[in-house]
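are you around this afternoon, could really use another pair of eyes. what follows is a protein written twice so to speak, once as letters and once as structure tokens for the fold. i want to understand how the tokens follow from the sequence so walk me through it. anything you notice is useful, everything is just below.
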Amino acid sequence: MRRQSALVVGSSGRTCKRDAAVRVVPLLLFTLWWLTAWADILEGRVVAIADGDTLTLLDANRQQHRIRLGGIDAPEKGQPYGTRSRMNLSNLAFGKDARAGKFA
């Protein structure tokens, strides 16, 4: 006995299930990418400054996150101008609301 397929062939000769998959898979991949992009954004208040390029963000759940600012090569505490660098970042960010995104 021969088994019959449940696939329906469209007028163009392709199967309808394949057409549906071709439309749905890119949408699903885009949705997953979009959700992961939103998951990497933190919002909160700056509660501490470690040095000229590192701060601590307190989120709505009262959890602290250590944030290292990308693209900044600031002196560390023990280096020349390290204290001045920390004070400048503190003047800009301490006690203010901030958003931090994760970039690889």
User: Anything to note?
Assistant: The radius of gyration is 26 Å. Residues 5-9 have pLDDT under 50 and may be disordered. Residues 43-96 form a domain with the OB fold (Dihydrolipoamide Acetyltransferase, E2P) fold (CATH 2.40.50.90).
